[in-house]
Design goal:
This is Glycosyltransferase involved in cell wall biosynthesis. By secondary structure, the protein is α/β, with parallel strands linked by helices. The protein has helices spanning 13-18, 29-41, 52-61, 83-96, 108-118, 136-140, 159-166, 182-186, 199-208, 226-234, 265-276, 279-296, 299-312, and strands at 4-6, 19-21, 44-48, 69-73, 101-105, 125-127, 149-152, 173-176, 192-195, 211-214, 239-242, 258-260. α2 (29-41) packs parallel to α3 (52-61) and α7 (159-166) crosses α11.
C-alpha cells in the first residue's frame, strides 16, 4: 500500500490512520515545502485544487524523474470568459499535469466536461462526490421555520431565474447574494429582500427558512452549488433546485428535493406554491433530505471516497528530490492530525 500525504487535515480517524497530513495555511511557504518533501517519501500526494502553494508544489513535483501520484481534489476552476483567458488557464494547468496526476471532480457531469475543458486524459478524472461541510455543532444547533423562501450563495447562481420566479408568488423571499447587478436590484418585486449578508445572518436565514432554493446556471464546463444544497438538506429543509449539471448526483427529484427545469421560472414558482401549501410534503422532503446526507454526504463518506480513489492507483516507487536535501527539517515538518 502506497504511503499517502495530504494537505487536508480532516479530523477523521480513518483518515489519520492512512494518511500523513500537514496543518498549515493554504498559501503558506512552509506548506509548499512540506508537499515537496513528502514527494520524496510518499507514493501519493493529495492536494487542494484551490491552494496556490499546493499547485505550485505540483509544478515542481511534475519535473521529478519519478514523481509520485498527485490527486488534486475539488478542481472546480473557471476556464475564463474568452479564448485568451482559456489559453492562459490551460497553460498553467499544463505546468503540473502529467500521467501521474489525477483529478477528483464533484459530479458525473464534470467527469465528461473536465477532460474536454482542460485537455487531460479522461482516465485520470474521477467522480468524488462532495460532503456537507457543517460541523457537528452546526448540525445539532437549533432550527426553526417561518422564514419563508430562502436562496443564497455566490458561485454560478442564476439570480434572474430566481427573481422571475419570486415575482410569481406572494410569500416573502430572501436572497442572500453579494453579486446582484443594478438591473437585477431594480427588478425586485415587493415580496423580495435581496443583497449581501454576514455569515452569521446567512446561517440564521438558512436555519429559519421554510424552503431553500438553489437556482443554478447551466454551464457547459463545470457545476456548482453542492455545498449549499447539502447544507440545506442536512438541516432538514425542503429543497428546490433547477436541473443544472450535476444536481442529480445529490438530489433525487420527489424524494430528497424537487428538481425543476433549468430555465423555467413559472415551474419553479409552481413548485414553491405547492410546497408552501403542503406542510406534510415539506416535512417529508426535509426529513428524507436530512437522512440522505447522514447516510451518504458527511465528511466520513467523503474521506472513504477519497481513500477508495487512492487505493485504486497503482503503487509508485517514491521519487527523490536531491536538490532539497539542504532544506532545514524544521521547515518541512509534517505533523500528524
Amino acid at each position: 500500500m502506497a504511503m499517502a500525504f495530504s494537505t487536508y487535515p480532516w479530523r477523521n480517524a480513518t483518515w489519520r490512520e492512512r494518511v500523513d497530513v500537514v496543518r498549515l495555511p493554504p498559501s503558506s511557504i512552509r506548506r509548499f515545502m512540506a508537499v515537496l518533501r513528502a514527494a520524496r517519501t510518499h507514493g501519493i500526494l493529495i492536494l487542494n485544487g484551490f491552494s496556490r502553494a499546493d499547485l505550485l508544489a505540483a509544478v515542481l513535483v511534475a519535473r521529478l524523474h519519478r514523481p509520485p501520484h498527485v490527486v488534486i481534489l475539488d478542481p472546480t476552476w473557471g476556464r475564463g470568459e474568452n479564448w485568451a483567458d482559456r489559453a492562459v488557464c490551460r497553460s498553467v494547468l499544463a505546468l503540473f499535469d502529467g500521467d501521474h496526476v489525477h483529478y477528483g471532480v464533484l459530479t458525473e457531469f464534470e467527469v465528461g466536461t473536465f477532460p474536454r475543458t482542460w485537455g487531460v486524459d479522461p482516465a485520470r478524472v474521477h467522480k468524488v462526490l462532495w460532503s456537507c461541510t457543517l460541523s457537528d455543532d452546526e448540525l445539532s444547533a437549533a432550527r426553526s421555520t417561518g422564514g419563508g423562501v430562502f436562496a443564497g450563495g455566490n458561485s454560478l447562481r442564476d439570480w434572474d431565474l430566481m427573481l422571475r420566479a419570486a415575482a410569481l408568488i406572494a410569500t416573502p423571499v430572501t436572497i442572500a447574494a453579494p453579486n446582484l447587478t443594478a438591473e437585477q436590484l431594480r427588478s425586485i418585486s415587493g415580496n423580495v429582500t435581496a443583497g449581501p449578508v454576514s455569515a452569521a445572518h446567512y446561517d440564521a436565514l438558512l436555519r429559519g427558512a421554510d424552503i431553500v432554493v438553489v437556482p443554478m446556471q447551466s454551464r457547459d464546463d463545470r457545476a456548482s452549488g453542492q455545498g449549499t444544497m447539502l447544507a440545506a438538506m442536512a438541516l432538514g429543509k425542503p429543497l428546490v433546485v433547477n436541473d443544472a449539471p450535476g444536481v442529480r448526483d445529490y438530489v433525487r427529484d420527489g424524494e430528497t428535493g424537487i428538481v425543476v427545469p433549468r430555465d423555467d421560472p413559472t415551474t419553479l414558482a409552481a413548485a414553491l406554491r405547492a410546497l408552501l401549501s403542503d406542510e406534510a410534503l415539506r416535512t417529508r422532503l426535509g426529513a428524507a433530505a436530512e437522512h440522505e446526507v447522514h447516510q451518504h454526504f458527511l465528511l466520513p463518506h467523503y474521506v472513504e471516497r477519497v481513500l477508495k480513489l487512492m487505493d485504486a492507483l497503482p503503487v509508485h516507487r517514491t521519487a527523490t528530490l536531491p536538490n532539497l536535501d539542504r532544506v532545514r527539517a524544521r521547515a518541512l515538518a509534517r505533523p500528524k492530525d
